[in-house]
Amino acid sequence: MPTRLIVIACCLVAGAALAVPAGAQAPLPGERIAAGITAAGADLSGMTVDEAAVALESVYGERVARGVVTVQAADITWTLKSAAAGVRFDAATSARRALYAGRAALGQPVDVPLAVTYTKGAVKRFTARIDKRLSVAARDATLKLSIRRVRVTHSRRGRSINARALATQIAAALADPRLPRVFLPKLVSVKPKLTADKLRASAATAITIQQSTFTLRLFKHLKVVKTYKVAVGQPQYPTPRGRFAIVSKQVDPVWSVPNSPWAGELAGTTVVGGSAANPLKARWMGIANGVGIHGTGEDGSIGSRASHGCIRMHVGDVVALYKRVPVGTPVLIG
After folding, report:
1. Does the predicted TM-score (pTM) go above 0.70?
2. Coil/strand/helix, residue 74
3. Is 310 a catalytic residue?
4. Minimal CA–CA distance to 119: which of 174, 185, 79?
5. What H or E segment, with its residue span, contains residue 62?
6. Are 123 and 171 contacting, i.e. CB atoms less than 8 angstroms apart?
7. Within 13 Å, how many C-alpha atoms sit on residue 96's CB side?
């Protein structure tokens, strides 16, 4: 048995079974299809199953097996042959469907779908190829940070052909020879998730830290509104460089002392907030990996490389900054 995935293409047919019912009684000798029963529009009234199968093969066999689907968009044409899609038409099963539908129809006219199978993967790959050529992903606005400047790049609309809908239409056309096989999919505009206006509103605050000049800049709505002098990490305990964000905030922060030789007898311990032994004064704005912005009691260290990786500020400055900086604020350290 082939390992490729074969699926049965079905159409909606009111008042009739779409496939041969499980456990249905086999056609009786000489039994004929009820009046008013058609298969894809072909009238099978009064025929035996064998006669109906021959008739259906004669009317639809060639078209189903050798049909071609054409897609045209942006002055480009793609074609998919039935053979490439693995299309198979089972006239005998189609005829039995008609017989069983007639039994259940109680004299009412019924049109049953043809028993057609195709390779789902082939249709999916065909539409994916078209989608790759025509679709353009929407581009969100982005926040660009440099040490002295914050700006927003504009978003861009994308476009799509709705490949899933196109695949569904192609599958239906492969299964039903009455359906048109030329498709002219429209290029649909796709909105970006984040526009420049939305980004400006959501990223109203940003911080940059210039280690070479010991300067922290506070941006509001893309403009510098305040600068502060800070201390940064010693050469042997450098402040990390890169883009981060404020991930936590705390008033009178607890100090979880690193288990490091420089911490002396306090290594591995916890010092309560507000304690004289706690070097994290007044406020804490966590950035990453134990590094954050905090107040210091060593005012003389401001403007130098004096910390163990954190950014130190005068107590009055860190209290003022804390009020203006929400969690999630982007931070660029250079």
Report:
1. no
2. coil
3. yes
4. 174
5. helix 62-66
6. yes
7. 14
73 is written with which tokens? 């968009």
Which of 11, 154, 294, 314 is flagged as catalytic?
A: 294
Backbone angles phi, psi at 282, to 5 degrees: 70, -60
**β-strand pairing of 182-183 with 110-112:** unpaired
Lowest mean pLDDT among 161-175, 180-194, 233-247, 269-283: 269-283
The DSSP string of 212-254 is TTTEEEEEETTEEEEEEE-BEE-TTSPPP-EEEE--EEEES--
Q: From 306, 252, 316, 247, select the one nearest 282 (Cα to Cα).
A: 252
Is residue 10 annotated as a catalytic residue, yes or no? no
Task: Tell me which residue has tokens 């968009």.
Answer: 73
Catalytic residue among 11, 154, 308, 310: 310
Interval 138-193: pLDDT, tens: 999 999 999 999 999 999 999 999 999 999 999 999 999 999 999 999 998 999 99
CA distance linking residue 84 with residue 61, whole number of Å: 16
Q: 183, 165, 226: which is closest to 71 by C-alpha?
A: 183
